[in-house]
Known about the structure:
Blueprint: E1 3-14, E2 17-28, E3 32-36, H1 43-50, E4 58-63, E5 66-68, H2 73-78, E6 81-84, H3 96-100, E7 107-108, E8 113-114, H4 116-129, H5 145-157, E9 163-167, H6 175-190, E10 194-198, H7 202-208, E11 211-216, E12 219-225, H8 231-239, E13 257-266, E14 270-278, E15 282-286, H9 293-300, E16 308-315, E17 318-320, H10 325-330, E18 333-336, H11 340-344, H12 351-356, H13 372-385, H14 402-414, E19 420-424, H15 432-447, E20 451-455, H16 459-465, E21 468-473, E22 476-482, H17 488-497
Parallel strand pairs: 3-10, 3-11, 6-9, 9-10, 15-20, 15-21, 18-19, 19-20
Antiparallel strand pairs: 1-2, 1-4, 4-5, 7-8, 11-12, 13-14, 13-16, 16-17, 21-22
Helix pairs in contact: 5-6
Amino acid sequence: MGAYISCSKISKSFKGVNALSSVDFEVMSGSVHGLIGENGAGKSTLMKIIAGVMPSDAGQILVEGKPVRFAGTRDAISRSIVTIYQDSDLIPTLTVAENVYLNQEHVHGALPFINRKRQLSETRALLERFGLDIDPMALVHELPTDVQKMVQIVKAVSKDARVLLMDEPTSSLTASEVDFLLPFIRSLAARGVGVVFISHYLSEVFRVCDHITILREGSVVTSVAKEKTDMGEAIRAMIGHGIQEEVASNRIPGERELFAVSGLCVRRRLTEISIAVHEGEVLGITGLMGSGTSELAKALFGSEDVIVESGDFRLGGEPIAITGTASAVRHGIAFVPNDRKTEGLFGRFSVADNICMPAIDHYAGMAGLLDRARMGATGRKYIDALAIKTPGPDVPVENLSGGNQQKVLLAKWLAIEPRVLILDEPTVGIDVGTKFEIRKLIRGIADRGMAVVLFTSEIEELEKLCNRVLVLFRGRIVRSLSAGEITKEEILKASMGGV
């Protein structure tokens, strides 16, 4: 099959900064095209131009060989180009059928009454066509995450999509859910749909894609059939060099216990949790979705989001009381949450504002006004230390790429110079190059004697970063793995089987 979309010499800049420079890109009918690159490489900008969200500054788009210029997303949809975003666009309180036909309802009669019977019948036929055993009358919030993603795709296909632009479709899924979704994407291609698959998970890109295009700093580095490259070459093309990572077993933590909790119980979530982490140690904690990992991370930081019923905390061997997040911060405990947008950063505030926020009282100046000069200096210090890509400390953090936002979130807590750093999924949704940089930062933090508690579902991260790993299963710790035992097989056996 030929190219349904051909992009030629597409360029786009924002405030004088080039986001795309003369990019050529094609979407073939019946093919899955992987689009990869570091955060800020231009992937999302290119997709937004193809989807009609924004115009290009230069270049041309052809649809079935004819030049087009989209005035908005409706123009793109009218050409059967549909986008499936990373965040769900479904309404949880509506049924599957209601979501599928939202904003394209079937009506009948003199008055515009919705023909619910027809919508239900057509949704059921759509689901059956793709071999999906989903009740069209089910409320979306009652469905598992992977099934919700399927509904998102079926909703897109209901618009007679010829091209699906998929932005990080697997970022919120477990490994088993990914195993279900990827063959479904292949089945769409087999039906003639052209799919653009954007993902930071290179193993998934190589599993599902026919062709791979790599962007770096707004330009195409290479565009090649999957069989003619490999993951190592792709990484080198993305970041300009290969990656060599030290393994955790090469580093020996101190013997002194720095932070511990015993008998921790969280209402309806965790039972009798006892952990201890030493100076210079990276302690990994993992488990399947629903095992209680996020609740444990929040409980260690005194978050009001969980109800702690019991638990005795120690810092440096001495008993301490953690009655809330403020008391945790006073004791030198910092927490990087897994959702930087809603729990970690203030998007419209500047980089410096966000970095200084946890210790804002320290920046009080004359007459109670903030000492902006000192805040700017702190911002610049951590911009340099963490290699944050930003024009300066006064730039709104929402203008940064996802990977650089994650670095700002890390800087925000490193700026209080904590003794204990709790990290909840610190590398989710960021590119492989930034992921490598953050892992290197974590190693450096531990090498300086800080205790790190790392909550992650990424097995590679556990293998390469952690001195020990604890596995949670249904709210309890079921395994403790030391250096030689931290393997994919042992982690999966414990997290899936509870043994």
